[in-house]
Specification:
alpha/beta; Rossmann fold; 2 domains; 7-stranded mixed sheet; 10 helices; 12 strands; globular
Amino acid sequence: MRYKFAEVFQRIAKKDKKIVFMTGDLGFHAFEKLRDELGERFINAGVAEHNMATAAAGMAYAGLKPWIYSIAPFVTIKVLEEIRNDICLPNHDVKIVGLGGGYDYGIAGPTHHAINDVGIMMTLPNMRIYAPGSAEDLEEIMKKMNKEKGPTYLRLTKAEKIPVAVSKYSPVRRIVTGNKVTVVVLGSILNRLLLAKGVDVWLVSEMPFLIPQDLKKSIQKTKRVVVLEEHVEVGGLGHYFHHLLFENNIMVKKFLHLFAKGYISHRYGSRDFYLKENGLDKESIAKALMRL
C-alpha cells in the first residue's frame, strides 16, 4: 500500500501546509515525488525512531500536523514509551504509520513482523487505529485521519486485490451477504477468505468501534460468529469483539477466533508460509468455516 499512501499523502499535504512527514529512513523508490513536493516538510529522521516520535510530539505541540512512518514494529513496540508519554497522554495530533502489519515482512522474521501491534496500540489513551482492507480504502481513511485531532495509528499491509466489489468506506461494513455464519475480518487478511455461499462477511477497518445495527441483526440470525485477523489472540479484534457481544447482550451458539499463533515450527519463510502454518491461508480458513 505504500505507493498508494505516497500518492494520497502528496495530495493531502499539498493542500494542508501544516503537515510534516517524517520517515525512519524508509521510502526508497516510493517517496521521491513526495519529498520533492514537500521540500523542508519532508524529514528523514534516520534510524532513530525514538527521537522521531518525540520530535513529532514537539511539532504537534507547536501547531504542526506531523505524520511519522516506519516499519510497523519500529513505530509501535520499539517506541511505545515515547508514544504513550509524549503523544498519547497529552493527546497530541500525531499520525503514526506502520508499514507491514502482520507477517508482511516474511523472511525478515519476528523482529520485522507486527502481529501484536493493534493490541499494544489499543491500550494507549486517546489512540485510534485504522486497518485498511485494500489500497482503495486509503484515500478516505487518510482524509479522515487528517481531519481528526489526536493520535492515530495506520496499519499498512500489502495492497492485494479483494475479489469482490467493495461498498463505500465505513469503519465496519458488509462485504458479502449470507445467512449461515457471520464472519468479521480485520483489515487486508480479507483477501484470504474464500467467499463461500451463506457467509455474511463484515470488514472492520477502525478500532475501537461500535457494532452497527445490521451486523447485530446478522449475528442474531446466524448465531455463529467467526473473527479473522492477522494478529495474536490477545488484544486484537477477537477479544474486543467478544467483549462487544457481551456488552450488547448478543447471544451466539458458536464463536470461532482465527488468529496468528506466532512461530510454530520456528522456521523462517514468506508471509504465505506463516499464514499456512497459522491456519490463516485460504484453504485452512475455508475448512474452519465448513466445520462450523
